[in-house]
Amino acid sequence: MDETFRACLRAGRREEAFELLYDSFRHKVFRLACSILRDESLAQDATQDVFLRVWRGLPAFKGESSAATWVYAITRNLCLTRAKTMPAVFLQSDFPAGEHGRGPDLDLALDRLPEPYRQALVLFYYEEKSYEAISEMLAIPMGTVKTHIHRARKQLRRVLEEEFSPRCV
Amino acid sequence: MNCEMFEDWMIEEIDGSLPAGRRTLLSAHLAACASCARDAADHHALDSLLTASLKPPQLPSSFAVSLPRRGPALRLPVWLDWLEPVAQFAAVALPALAFPRLWEVFHLAFPLN
Fold this sequence. Notes:
The complex is a heterodimer of chains A (169) and B (113).
Chain A: H1 2-10, H2 14-37, H3 40-57, H4 67-85, H5 104-111, H6 115-126, H7 131-138, H8 142-163
Helix pairs in contact in A: 1-2, 2-3, 2-4, 2-6, 3-4, 5-8, 6-8, 7-8
Chain B: H1 3-15, H2 20-32, H3 34-53, H4 83-109
Helix pairs in contact in B: 1-2, 1-3, 2-3
């Protein structure tokens, strides 16, 4: 994909280059946005804005990084900026049971994890257990992804056991 | 080998990254250690819970990005690529060269004393 994308850009075929990125990354961008913003409707708005930025940024794209690295960096920056401006209540899953399609205990337990662990673990399940995909999406080495997921599992198990009755584990 | 290390192996097994050689050692340990066998069952239960709960969110099929309308792209031919760095240099150099002259004119127009 990267080669075709670069060829399109070199030839000045901006629309085609954009479509390649859109087709390849829109679902992943949306899932990455969901993992940061924790809300599908906010993540949809973010995905929309990410691709607008991609469109505007295409003429200046120098190809120093891969297209994926570039698109994910735009997604992370945009979502983290939005997350900072959101009231804290949106960043905690203390909604009524079933709000996110899962039990409140698991949501609360996930919120107890340090943010990098929570995000890596959530993406791990969104991305069909691929360390490589998460490493690329979060721009961290694969070893760090693995460590975050291991620690997240251990802490989550402890939190569910100690604070939320034996219902889940 | 201690039980703590086996917990890491249990997690690696669940994540699908435990090498085959270690899988045999892990199975042997779980058969002999009731506490680790319970931990392994807990980790598998947690994995099932997470798999069932953290389903990948899907973009609705109606989702589309509306791009701003624009005119035809203006693109210079490849042989004029050298113009871009020259223009960038000029954008910095010209104001720098012009500034002392402008400063002089300003002082002539508005003398300090």
